[in-house]
Amino acid sequence: MPDPSDHIAPAHAEVAEIWPRDGRIRVLGHVVGVASGAGTLVARVRDAAGTELRLAAEGRGNRFEASVPLDALASATPEGGDRVWDLYLVPDGSDDALRLGRHLDDVPGKKKIFTYPAQHAGGLWIEPYYTVQDNLSITCRREESP
Predict the structure, then answer these.
(1) Are the C-beta atoms of residues 57 and 65 closer than 8 Å to each other?
(2) What percent of the chain stands above pLDDT 70?
(3) I want to staple 97 with a disulfide (CB 3.0 to 4.6 A). Which of 67, 77, 88, 118 is the partner?
(4) What does pTM read for this prediction?
(5) Which H or E run includes 143?
(6) Beta strand 12-21 with 98-101: parallel, antiparallel or unpaired?
(7) What are the Cα distances from residue 71, in Å, to 17, 46, 112, 119?
């Protein structure tokens, strides 16, 4: 008989809802593999080592909620083409950054299924999206390519 623990997802921050509107991207979810969802939301730019934005994540039990203000994201985005920010949650009392994603449902390949509206801030079109690994990231495109 298979061991049920073989099918348990590794520790991560499971996204339940994404609300891109009103100048922010609000993310709600729960943590898997750790006790608390409160902590810090960390956004890191791909291909720009050391560029990150840290924001408070509220939590109750294993649930978390965080908002990414678009003005802060736009002003922290390095110059030079389009950029991608990968999102992580660092729970209070932990040093581990948990990747935000949606893995515990029956919908693989979210990148081609779920789309979210882009918002404009600081000369950028900013849009959340799921990666090919069903993790949550944010793309920032220069104004000339909406």
Answers:
(1) yes
(2) 92
(3) 88
(4) 0.89
(5) none
(6) parallel
(7) 21, 19, 27, 11
